Structures are given as structure tokens and as C-alpha cells.
Amino acid sequence: MHIHPLILPALAAVAHAASYSGDLRPQIHFSPPSNFMNDPNGLVYDSKKGIYHLYYQYNPSQTVAGNQHWGHATSSDLYHWTNQPIALSGDKPEEYIFSGSAVIDSNNTSGFFPHQDDGVVAIFTVDTPTLETQNIAYSRDGGYTFTKYANNPVIDIGSKQFRDPQVVWHPETQQWVMTLAYAQDLVIGFYTSPNLRDWTHASNYTQKGLPGAQFECPNLVKFSVDRAVSKETSKYVLFISVNPGAPLGGSGTFYVVGNFNGTHFTSEVAHETLLDFSGDNYAAQWYSGIPENEPPVSIGWASNWDYTAEVPTGPLEGWRSAMTLPKTHTLTKVNGAWVVTHSPFHELSTIKGRQLVSKNLKSGNVQTNFSGVPSKAVYFNVTLKDIHDAHPTGQVNFNFTSSSGEYLDGGLSLDKGSFWINRAGTHLFTIKDNGNYTSSFNTTIPSFGKGTFSFSGVIDRSVLEVFLGEERTQIGTLTFFPTSPLDTLTVSAEGLTNQTSVSVKAWGLQSGWNSTTGSKRFRA
Ligand SMILES: *[C@@H]1O[C@H](CO)[C@@H](O)[C@H](O)[C@H]1NC(C)=O
Ligand SMILES: *[C@@H]1O[C@H](CO)[C@@H](O)[C@H](O)[C@H]1NC(C)=O
Ligand SMILES: *[C@@H]1O[C@H](CO)[C@@H](O)[C@H](O)[C@H]1NC(C)=O
Ligand SMILES: *[C@@H]1O[C@H](CO)[C@@H](O)[C@H](O)[C@H]1NC(C)=O
Ligand SMILES: *[C@@H]1O[C@H](CO)[C@@H](O)[C@H](O)[C@H]1NC(C)=O
Ligand SMILES: *[C@@H]1O[C@H](CO)[C@@H](O)[C@H](O)[C@H]1NC(C)=O
Ligand SMILES: *[C@@H]1O[C@H](CO)[C@@H](O)[C@H](O)[C@H]1NC(C)=O
Ligand SMILES: *[C@@H]1O[C@H](CO)[C@@H](O)[C@H](O)[C@H]1NC(C)=O
Ligand SMILES: *[C@@H]1O[C@H](CO)[C@@H](O)[C@H](O)[C@H]1NC(C)=O
Ligand SMILES: *[C@@H]1O[C@H](CO)[C@@H](O)[C@H](O)[C@H]1NC(C)=O
Ligand SMILES: *[C@@H]1O[C@H](CO)[C@@H](O)[C@H](O)[C@H]1NC(C)=O
């Protein structure tokens, strides 16, 4: 499984020649040039240059996990990506670079950057057959090439289950804070450092009752809070990914809302919240370097460890796994409870194409065949008005169909107060191929406040993401694999109370890849 460093340039050449034209290849969501990708790593925004870096867990030699490196891509809008050479590799056989984060050390706290204020430091786990330690590497060229720190590791507690450091700057105490997982102890650890080199254990946090066999990829994220919602101006949210054994099967992510004082996280909620009501959203990471006055931005891994090594994109197209859409988030309150909201980054504005449909209906359906949209990626938004408050009835469904008779459907049940999505109608990979590849997911809609409700979604060849509610407080992320492309959208309404109206809008989305290679500006 190990790859000798000398053959890496050859692998980079393979990456260069990668094709993004496969029928299952997402065009809006990031996926690796070839082979296997999992967790997003090192998400850092270089605000001076306007460049977003995406590093990721990468096996450059096979379409299954193993041989972990940090792959790398850059973007100025999080939708149009340029693949870059691998950023971090192990130094010896059976030494792998596991997940971690990256920060811009603008004050040169690390001392690595004598003549610049835009140096990048990556903080990551090095995994060997017996040990996981935390290590750092610095980049003086804006995050393209890294030098490993001579005195690595920076944290070694002699554990094999100790990983995924996420580092943020805590201005109040003028120090760096690392959040990481004592994976199988189901504990989150916090460490602090003045300089990214010397770390002191600050505290441990456990979310009692959380399901799952391992905690992974924790993120501590500061949210500004609207004064209309709370007297406090900010809160901290701790995101914890668990695998296996998440409540919807396999991998899943929870969050806990509370506060952080520089050393200790304290929960201020009765229980954790599940991030996504569907099966394919894991290990999300939040960008560092986003300006203070802008909302936090995240990207997650749109897959599930239960079946990620078996999905058909491996044998058919030579790659496995996509990231979720980039999203912006806010923290708000719904019915008195804290919730994180989720919106596609910049409302998809840099890739939004021609409007396919804009219609109102009270019953019946609207249909649009979008086979003329080259990306086969579509954004749709369905908005209901004048829902009967006391007795909402009826249903509004969406259905993506293909000429092969396959379909991906879902919808809103006003009677049940629920929303569902279902991939059983796509046939290239089904629950018969893997018993944990659950067909359908659903969630309860807490209320149809003010008589309106909307849902929206992005379909992108083999990934669907739905956003529920005007404030988009619920999301569902689902991979699916049809034998022939889904190219027609039907939205139907039935049984609504007669004053309720439904507005249906859909737009084609433009591919984020240039032609088919995604590597035009590949840096040799
Ligand atoms: C895509 O092509 C356009 C126009 O040729 C160019 O400006 C842009 O830099 C390219 N983007 C990438 C990611 O290669
Ligand atoms: C950065 O830190 C190093 C080591 O402390 C120091 O030599 C250098 O002068 C510093 N550079 C700046 C711009 O502060
Ligand atoms: C940089 O230094 C300034 C001035 O001391 C401080 O306010 C700021 O929080 C520091 N930021 C980082 C990221 O080190
Ligand atoms: C923090 O948790 C880890 C993992 O369970 C444990 O090994 C360590 O002793 C704890 N540290 C403290 C100070 O409690
Ligand atoms: C942070 O919270 C912990 C636990 O509540 C407390 O022991 C510690 O003194 C607090 N630190 C500061 C700076 O308030
Ligand atoms: C499927 O899930 C069950 C329990 O939920 C687990 O025991 C089994 O290992 C999983 N299978 C795969 C292939 O992950
Ligand atoms: C979607 O279309 C398929 C195939 O025509 C059909 O079996 C399924 O019931 C439809 N779903 C909805 C929600 O209408
Ligand atoms: C959509 O239109 C294309 C081109 O006319 C056609 O080949 C395809 O079968 C249509 N899709 C469906 C589901 O009818
Ligand atoms: C919702 O999902 C649960 C399993 O998570 C299932 O038992 C239930 O039947 C589903 N409900 C609907 C309305 O699909
Ligand atoms: C649907 O579109 C409306 C109008 O742009 C917007 O306010 C609403 O938030 C969207 N709903 C969802 C769930 O994205
Ligand atoms: C339907 O609308 C009419 C007026 O537009 C109203 O008189 C009637 O009560 C409504 N029926 C229901 C079931 O809401």
C-alpha cells in the first residue's frame, strides 16, 4: 500500500490527465482528479490573495482508503477548482498524513516567517502502525509547498487513537487553540499554544450519550449571534463526527452549542443536534482565515464509511467520493432552541446558469427536461405560501427521472409534518449491493411558521443536497448512482388546502471544471 516518494511526480502527472467528464462525476461539488478522497483538511482562506485552499485526505494510488496523503486544490469562489500537486506525504514506509487543519500565521507567532505576514502552517496527525502524533509544517509560498518542522511531533501522548487537530486563533487570550479527538475514548481534547510549536493540554470535553465507536474531526467554531436572538454577541459550537454507529448508520456528525473561554468548552444545551438528516455528510471542516465580519464557511465529505469503498465510481470512472457543497452558516434560535443554518456558499451565484422553470401551481405538476444543461447539475427551489396553520394537508414532491426509468425522489408531507428523500429508484448501486446503503431518509419539520415553507436542492449527477425551511435549518446530503443520467425534474402538488400556492423555480448550474480536465493551471 505504501508509495515511495520518488514516484509521486508520476502520480501528479496522472492527476493532471484526470477526466471530470464521467456521467457520475459531480460538476459543482469537488472530487479528486482520480483515486480516493475522504475528509477535507487544512481549509484556509488567504484573504490577501483571495484564494481558498482545500487539502484533503487522499490515496493517490487506489480507489479505496489507505496510503493517506494531503491532496490539494485551490479556488477563488469554492466552485471553480484548480487541482494542485500533493501537498503532504509521509517520510517513510507506513507513515501516513492523516487529517488536520491549516492557519495563516499573520503575526509570525511561529517564527517560521521572517519576511512575510501570509505564511501558512498546517497542523496534522501523522499515523504509523503503532502511533498517532500531532505535527506541523510551514509554507512560505502561500500554501503550495510545505516544509515539515524539524522538531516534530509537537504532541505525542503515546496513543494510536489521537487525531484530527483543528486549530483556531483565540484573540481574547492571544493564543492558538487546538481541538482534537481521543478517538476511541470518545473524548475531545483542547490544547493551547502561543506559537503553534509548543502545546499545553488545556481541558477535555465529553458529550455524554453520543452514539458511535469513535469521535473524529472535531471543529470548534465561533459564531456571531444576532442581537435579536441573544444578548451575547457570539457563541461557540463544537462539531463532533462519529463513526461507525451514527444514528442513521455508519458515519455522522453532531453539534453542541455553548461557550469557550480559552481553555474550556461548556455546553449550554440539553442535548446535541444531528447536523444532517441523511447518510452522506461527515467530517466537515470550517475554514480558517474568513474575515471576522463574515459568516463561517464549511465543506464536508459527502460519503459514508459503511459503503464508500464499494460505490461504482471507482471501477467505472477511477475516483471515489466528493465533498459537500461549500456552505455558509449562521447560528440562530428556532422555537427557543439554538440551531445552525446552512446556505450554499454565495447562493451559487458564480455558477448559476439559465433559469429552467418558474411556475406557480396549486395542484398537478410542472416538469422540465434539463438534458440540455451540459453539467446536468440543477438548483431548484420550491416555496409554499398560505399554508393552513391549524391543519396543513397534502404533499409537494420532487422527482428527478432518467430515460432508463430510474428516479431520485423526495418531498414534503404537510399531513405528517415531514420531509423525505429516497434513492431506491437509482439502480447502479442499491441496498442489495450493501445492506447499509439505506434507501430513504426523512426528518420532522418542527413548524410551518407564518404559513410559509420552502425547500431547495442541488442535484449534481451523483450527489443531492436539500435545504429545508426559509432559514435552512435542516439539510440532507445523499449520494446516488443511476445507470443513466437523471435529466428531468418534476415537481408535483396534491391535496393542499385550496388557498395554498406553490412556486417552483429551477436553474441550470455551470460546471466548476474547465472542459474535462480540471487541471488547466496545474502547477508542476
Ligand atoms: C478556466 O478557463 C478560464 C478561461 O480560459 C480561465 O480564466 C480560468 O483561469 C480557468 N480556470 C481554471 C480553474 O483552470
Ligand atoms: C519572525 O520570527 C522569527 C523568529 O522569531 C524572527 O527571526 C523574524 O524576524 C520574525 N519576522 C517578523 C517579520 O517578525
Ligand atoms: C496578531 O497581533 C495582533 C496585535 O497584537 C492581535 O490583536 C491579533 O489577535 C493577532 N492575531 C493573530 C492571528 O495572531
Ligand atoms: C484527557 O482525556 C484523555 C483521553 O481519555 C486522557 O488520556 C487524559 O488523561 C485526559 N486528561 C486529563 C487532564 O484529564
Ligand atoms: C474557563 O472555564 C473553566 C471551567 O469552567 C475555569 O476553570 C477557568 O477558570 C475558566 N478560565 C477563564 C480564563 O475564565
Ligand atoms: C453495517 O452496519 C452494521 C451495524 O450497523 C455493522 O455491524 C456493519 O459492520 C456495517 N457494514 C459495513 C460494510 O460497514
Ligand atoms: C417518481 O417517478 C417514478 C418513476 O416514474 C415513480 O415510480 C415514483 O413514484 C415517482 N415519485 C414521486 C414522488 O412522484
Ligand atoms: C429528456 O430529453 C432528452 C432529449 O430530448 C431525451 O433523450 C430524454 O429521454 C428526456 N428525458 C426523459 C426522462 O424523458
Ligand atoms: C422515516 O424514517 C424512519 C427511519 O429512520 C422510518 O422508520 C419511517 O418509516 C420513515 N417515515 C416516513 C414517513 O418515511
Ligand atoms: C427559496 O428561495 C427564496 C427566494 O429566493 C429564499 O428566500 C429561500 O430561502 C429559498 N429556500 C430555500 C430552502 O433555499
Ligand atoms: C376554498 O376557497 C374558498 C374561497 O376561495 C373558500 O370559500 C373555501 O372555504 C375554501 N375551502 C377550503 C377547504 O379551505
From TrEMBL:
SMART domains: Glyco_32. It comes from the Eukaryota. Keywords: Glycosidase, Hydrolase, Signal. Residues 1-17 form the signal peptide. GO terms for molecular function: sucrose alpha-glucosidase activity. InterPro entries: ConA-like_dom_sf, Glyco_hydro_32, Glyco_hydro_32_AS, Glyco_hydro_32_C, Glyco_hydro_32_N, Glyco_hydro_beta-prop_sf. GO terms for biological process: sucrose catabolic process. Pfam families: Glyco_hydro_32C (PF08244), Glyco_hydro_32N (PF00251). SUPFAM superfamilies: Arabinanase/levansucrase/invertase (SSF75005), Concanavalin A-like lectins/glucanases (SSF49899). PROSITE patterns: GLYCOSYL_HYDROL_F32. Residues 351-507 form the Glycosyl hydrolase family 32 C-terminal domain. CDD domains: GH32_Inu-like. The keyword Signal applies. One of its GO terms (cellular component) is fungal-type vacuole. Residues 29-333 form the Glycosyl hydrolase family 32 N-terminal domain. Belongs to the glycosyl hydrolase 32 family. PANTHER family: EXOINULINASE INUD (AFU_ORTHOLOGUE AFUA_5G00480) (PTHR42800), INVERTASE-RELATED (PTHR42800:SF2). This is Glycosyl hydrolase. It comes from Aspergillus coremiiformis.
